[in-house]
Every structure is written in C-alpha cells, then in structure tokens.
Amino acid sequence: MPRQYSLQEIAHLIGADLKGDPACSISGIMTLQNAQLGQISFLDNKRYLKYLTTTQASAVILRAECLKHAPNNALVVADPYLAFAKIAKLFEPVSAFSPGIHATAIIGEDCYIHPSVSIAPYVVIGANTRLDEGVVIGAACVIGNNVIIGANTRLTSLVSVCADTRIGERVIIHNGTVIGSDGFGLAKENNKWLKIPQLGKVQIGDDVEIGANVSIDRGALDDTIIGDGVKLDNQIQVGHNVRIGENTAIAGCTGIAGSTHIGKNCMIGGGVCINGHIEIVDNVYITGMSSVVHSISNPGIYSSTHSTQPQREWQKNSIRFRQLDQLAKRLKKTEALVNNKSIDND
C-alpha cells in the first residue's frame, strides 16, 4: 500500500507556510508536468512556471513570489528544491535486508562480522576484515584483507574494496566501483616504465556516497582521503594521494590527478579535468568541462570553457585563437614604436 501523509504533516516536516487544505492527502511526488491527483510537486526554476497553472498536482511547493500562480494547495518555503529533497525521502522505496551470510559467500580467516550484517550471494571477503553493525554487502562484491567497514554502510553489487581500505559509517557505494586499486605510479628507465609500488591506503569518512563505476586509487605513500559527507557522482577518477574535504560534491566524469588537495564545501561540475599536485581551497565552485591546471587560492566560481557555437563561427574563432600569439607580438612592437615616438616628441 502506498504511504499517505496529510499536507499538514508535510508542512510540519519542511517548516512550510501552508496555503489551502491541511487535510489534503498526499501519496507521492512528481514533476509539475506529470503530477496527478494525490501527488505533490515543486517549482524551483522559473523556467517551469508555465506548467504551474496547468498542473494536476494536489499541492505544490514554491516560493512566496510564485504563490499567486498556484492553482490549488501550496506549501511556501524559501528553498523549494531542499524541501523537495526532504519530502522525496518519505516516498523512497525501502529495501529490506535480512541479517545473514549467503551460503555461496566466501569469508576469510579472522574476520569480525556483526550478527546484523547482510551478505548477498557470491561475495568474497579477505582475511582480518571487519564489518560493523548493519553493514550490507551486495551480490558479487569483493573485499580484500584488513578492510574495515563502518556501521550501516551499504555496498551494492559488484563493488571491489581492495586491501587495507577504511570506510566510515553510513556510506553508500554503488555498482562497479573500485576502491583502493593501485595508483598510476611509474618511473622511466632506459625508455621503459618501472612500476612504483603503491604503499598507501584509502580512507573514506562518514556519510559519503560514491556513484557507479568510480575509481579511487590507493596512495603511493600517503593515504588517499575522502572526507565526511563527500558526494561523488558516477564515473569519477580519483588519483593516488588525493584529498577531498568535507561536504564537497563532484559531478560525473571528472578526473582528479594524483596528490591534489580539494577543500571543504566545494562543488565541481561534470567532466572537469584537475591537474595533479595542486591545491583548491574551501568553497570553490568549478563549472562543468573546465580544466584546472593551477592551484586555486581564493573561494569563488571558476570556469575555463566556451559553450557550443555554430560550426562556421567556431571555425573562424579557432583560426583567430591560433593567431593570438602573432597578434600579441605585433601589438608589443606597435606599443614600443608608439612609446619611442612619444619620447622623441618630448
């Protein structure tokens, strides 16, 4: 049976000013365009204001300035998107995990596994590993030796956690992610590559979420460290010795080269390339597809790419870009001539 809440209950949860029927029953959440009777929706971006007057939602979450456009019940808040996030939790499907170890799982020697832990089929766990209370290990996960996984952490299927990794409490790690594999450490001798042993570990804090197919390399000497509350999207590469500060969020397909330190409360867009051995301070926002070559010493918003253009316009600009060096040299000569003439006139 779907869960149902009165509009009054939802208003109390998010601290909203209720306009309309407090007894209105809500059994789901949906976009303005597709919402039906009994569902609640939200308006955060004014580009979707055109859907507000025609929505079939029983109630809408919005800001005070948009209230005049609401066709029915409304919850007025300062941040509709945050309110949506809190309400969505009410309707999130809850998976039931039964404690126990599946018969097909392989468990190494001298492991500590709390009685409440759930281990799915075909899991392999190395020796001397610790799984604390409420840990859930999904199907076909591989966990190495000497790993520690904190309470109420959940690994979905096909996650690999290499030896000596430390994972905190209430962490979620999605399908296909690899944590603690060797970093890209190589030295060249006589035109051949010599592999450098990666002797560090990976440490992941509490309340971290790591998306699907993420790679987090172990440190070469120092550990790779992911701070409390960090959120990593899908298909992110984190190089060896990288440090990511608390509550930083990084969107998909970003690559972070080794030994880079990223501060707290940063937001990094999708497809960003971050050079190695640099530092990014707290509270930095980097827009998608940017290339970060040097350290960032001041908080703020940073970008380094151009949006798409018509092809002919892009071709012209590309040619002009290649001419910039010549133009700069000509400008320098012109300035020198002008300055010399000014001196002669004086």
Question: What's this entry about, in short?
Answer:
Helix content is 15%, strand content 28%. With 346 residues, the protein is an alpha/beta fold. Among the domains are: 5-91, 3-Layer(aba) Sandwich (Udp-n-acetylmuramoylalanyl-d-glutamate--2,6- Diaminopimelate Ligase, Chain: A, domain 1), CATH 3.40.1390.10; 159-302, 3 Solenoid (UDP N-Acetylglucosamine Acyltransferase, domain 1).
Q: What features would you describe in this structure?
A:
The structure is a single chain. The protein has 346 residues and is α/β, with parallel strands linked by helices. Among the domains are: 5-91, 3-Layer(aba) Sandwich (Udp-n-acetylmuramoylalanyl-d-glutamate--2,6- Diaminopimelate Ligase, Chain: A, domain 1), CATH 3.40.1390; 159-302, Hexapeptide repeat proteins (UDP N-Acetylglucosamine Acyltransferase, domain 1). Helix content is 15%, strand content 28%. The protein is built from four helices and 39 strands. Strands 8-11-14-17-20-25-28-31-34-37-39 form an eleven-stranded parallel beta sheet, with no helix packed on it. The radius of gyration is 27 Å and the shape is flat. The N and C termini lie far apart (92 Å). The model has no long low-confidence stretch (mean pLDDT 95).
